[in-house]
Amino acid sequence: MDLESLVYKYKLIMEVEQEGQAGMTRRYPEEIQAWWDKIGKPKLVVAPMVDASELAWRALSRRYNAQLCFTPMFHSRIFSEDPKYRAENFFNIIDPKDRPLIVQFCGNDPKTVAKAAEFVKDYCDAVDINLGCPQAIAKKGHYGAYLQNEWDLVSRIVKEVRSVVKIPVTCKIRVFEDVQKTINYAKMIVESGCFMLTVHGRTIHQKGPLTGLANWSYIKAVRDAINIPMLANGNIQYLQDVWRCIEETGVDGVLSAEGNLQNPAIFKGINPPVWDVALEYLELVNTYPCPLSYSRGHLFKLFHHLLVNEEGKDLRDRLATASYMSDLLEMTHLLKSRFEPYLTGEKTPSKELLQNLPLPPWLCQPYVRPPPYVPPIEPKPPKRLDPVLSNKMKKRLLRNPRFKVVKKDPNSLKLCRLCQNPQGLKCEFQFCKKCCRLKCKAEDIDCPGHKCFIKSNRIKAQEWLQRQQATATIIN
Question: What sequence ranges are listed for the domain DUS-like FMN-binding (predicted)?
Answer without folding.
Answer: 46-276
